[in-house]
Design goal:
Blueprint: E1 9-13, H1 18-29, E2 33-38, H2 41-53, E3 58-62, H3 68-82, E4 85-90, H4 106-127, E5 131-140, H5 153-173, E6 179-184, H6 191-194, H7 204-213, H8 228-239, E7 250-252
Parallel strand pairs: 1-2, 1-4, 2-3, 4-5, 5-6, 6-7
Helix pairs in contact: 1-2, 1-8, 3-4, 4-5
Length: 258
């Protein structure tokens, strides 16, 4: 059954492409007005046009979530434009440093933490008073939040921080009937997952066809790479939950234990 989000307002970070774009369009198609942010103006313009094609209002702004001033400015614009919101989807993230701690780039290591933890924290902190009773906060965690790994420490650490922030917020906000949950999307057909240059990236459909033949190293053969629209459907399902639904939980599309 199609969820009716008419009269609702959603905020989606990292909505210029990939999973964030799919989420923003899915919510708009269901009737929500949407505020979006990303770092690339051209991608934001395309996403805004797609949302407006559904007949919805869209606020789009270029934001670097590692910059607290830029982040707060966007939040202020959201509240000035819409008054209140019902769904906050912290999708944007960074995976900038993949080496060991001993060999890591200190600037990239810390910027990963800034984007993945401080960014969502700032979005929540500045929008929280404007989230309506019964609202939903959905954070994008990762299976790497639950494992140590042998490299990419900044990503593991930052996603672990966001993961526990979700649980803390669930304990803090239940009296306002605001549910806070994590999504672990698992492997998804995006340029971030494929590590392609965004300037020449494949479409999700092209990546899905590629990974039908051979999954990336490290994934079990029973895993499956998902289309971004599948993640968007899960977000919509969580957004449509009635008051008293799940909170402080992690929902995963992965096909393996985390």
């Amino acid at each position: 059954m199609e969820s009716n989000m008419s009269g609702k307002v959603a905020v989606v970070t990292g909505a210029g492409r990939g999973i964030g774009r799919a989420i923003a369009e899915r919510l708009a198609r269901s009737g929500a007005d949407v505020a979006i942010c990303a770092r690339t103006d051209e991608e934001l313009d395309d996403a805004r046009a797609a949302i407006e094609d559904f007949g919805r209002n869209c606020l789009a702004a270029s934001v670097d979530l590692a910059d607290p001033i830029s982040t707060k400015s966007f939040c202020d614009k959201v509240l000035a434009s819409f008054g209140e919101l019902h769904f906050l989807v912290n999708n944007a993230g960074a995976y900038l440093e993949r080496g060991t701690v001993a060999e890591s780039d200190t600037e990239l290591w810390w910027k990963t933490v800034e984007v993945n933890v401080r960014g969502p924290y700032m979005m929540i902190r500045h929008l929280l008073d404007g989230i309506a009773e019964g609202g939903k906060i959905i954070n994008f965690s990762s299976g790497k939040a639950l494992t140590a790994g042998a490299n990419s420490a900044s990503y593991h650490v930052s996603k672990a921080g966001l993961h526990i922030l979700t649980e803390v917020l669930a304990n803090e906000l239940w009296q306002r009937d605001i549910d806070v949950n994590n999504i672990v999307p698992g492997p998804v057909a995006t340029s971030t997952f494929s590590r392609e240059d965004p300037a020449s990236r494949s479409t999700p459909e092209e990546l899905l066809e590629k990974y039908k033949q051979e999954l990336p190293t490290g994934l079990p053969k029973w895993e499956r790479v998902k289309h971004p629209d599948e993640v968007a459907d899960l977000v919509l399902w969580l957004a449509a939950m009635p008051k008293g639904g799940p909170t402080g939980q992690t929902f995963s599309l992965a096909r393996r234990p985390l």
